[in-house]
Amino acid sequence: MSSKKVSRQKKSCHHCKSSSAAAPADSTTIHYEKFWLYRHCSSVQQRDKQAQKAGQLFSGLVAMNIVFLGCAFISSMIFNHVAITLAEVWILLSILKVLCLCWIFYYLLGTSRQPHAVLHRDAHAGPSWIRGSVLLFGTFSILLNICHIGYSTILIQCKSKVEVVFPSLGILFVCTQAFFLWHHAKDCIQVQHNFTRCGLMLTIATNLLLWLLDVTNDTIHMEIDSQLREVEERLAGKAPLSQLCNETTLCTCPNTTTCKVFQKGYILLYPFNTEYCLICCSVLYVMWKNVGRRISHHHIPHTKHKFKLQGVVFGPVLGAIAVITGICVFMLYQIQATGSTASHQVFVMYYSYYIVLLPLMSVGAVVGTIIHALEKKELDTLKNPTRSLDVILLMGAALGQIGMCYFSIVALVATNPMDLLNSLILSYSVLLIFQNITQNVFIIDGLHRQHFVAATEDKVKEQNHEAYDQRRVSMLELGQEIRKVSLSYIHDYSNLSWKRRALREISFFLVLCNIILWVMPTFGAHPAFENGLEKSFYGYSTWFVIVNFGLPLGVFYRMHSVGGLLEVYVTA
């Protein structure tokens, strides 16, 4: 009996080999590039993974070298203005922009149009709010470059021509990159893996260097404004400022409305450009992770969640109160802080608003986390590069605010923590650290939960399918069916569990709170620059370096938290 079984197995194996050899090659088969590590890999099953890792390693090394080179240029410009000038840094970044533009045009016209180039698209990558943010901040970046061109053209007699060429090239770069990300953010490219990875990493490195340059330039502008304000306070009525301003008036804006508009717009729009660069880096990184990725059919979601403002009352009301109060505080702060002297009361008002709002946000996040634990939903363990990146960005961006807070705590405790303003800043720092931690836990826990699919949605799909299949159904019967489905949906929604209601209320409240906490520092509310407490403790240059690396990350954290909270709200 055993010999008969062996003979049967041999025959069946021989039949499988012959049939597989005679079968025609599938036209949809993905032919992966044979990287050098792919060719020399001994295990057949691990060839694709080893080739993918090798390609990612090589492209990562390319990006690392570009970033280090750019950082060396920018650091040399900061510490040695004579050896490396800002114009030379712009020339380097212009070369990188041209290379990125060449690769993007090649991808749009060549790579993406090849047969079987994009067989899969990542449904989680490039959501609507991310692509909308790219367009929004890209528009502000274009306006920034227009203001830069106008300002440099008016002062062309004392400025380099590079200051006109660089923003002109920046407009083309922003438009092309925004178009590329809007249409191809979800691509899982299946051809030219290594070249595509290198192109994506080149674009990521360029955006990182543009962000770093914007941060340093924003630092210079803030430093000049604060120094001029201190000089005016110290020497007003005591000594003429003509001697002090001999060097600063060599290339000043003439007393014309056009020049003042370009100058104010140039300074005001700087934070938007930094956010644009960070958002583009996150989207490009997801595209880089999706190169060569194959998505099976069971990974594709069958339902598309939409934002609906139904069943939430307290969250929007409390959030609207927080937003309106924050706008009033922000306007009062801007009116007084932008004057010659910032009063002590305006700082007390600003930090008091945060001290009231941050505990409410922390309590909401803690309650939401507890509700997540009570729901007992299964965790979503499927591979999702977008979600992994969201978690990394939330944790990394929160480090900016947390780091600034710890520096403030050390400075305040070491000086005079019993003073009113010092105690407010100390409480603000502690509460901000706790709020960031609790909110991150709530968002990350919500992103990893299985999405809820209502039974009414299945009913709607089934009845719509039946309505399309039954072509002989009268319009009256179809209207009755739609009315039944609507009534069942309203009935089911009215019986929505209190857990899901609470999650949606909390998520919507935190969305509005994070929006106002994003608006205030983005549009110029920087009390860490004006209060002078930490600056006097750490020194002028050191504190500016700390704040200008932490503040943009804090702004990016608030904006990214809005996206994560919206996803938690929609999927609750």
From TrEMBL:
Keywords recorded for this protein, A-Z: Cell membrane, Hydrogen ion transport, Ion channel, Ion transport, Membrane, Transmembrane, Transmembrane helix, Transport
Predominant subcellular localization, coarse grouping: membrane
One GO cellular component term noted in the UniProt record for this chain: plasma membrane
Annotated localization: Cell membrane
Membrane topology note: Multi-pass membrane protein
Stretches that traverse the bilayer: 57-83, 89-109, 129-152, 164-182, 194-213, 267-288, 309-333, 353-371, 391-414, 420-443, 506-525, 537-557
Keyword Transmembrane helix applies: yes
Name of this chain's protein: OTOP3 protein
Source species of the chain: Bucco capensis
Lineage, uppermost ranks: Eukaryota, Metazoa, Chordata, Craniata, Vertebrata
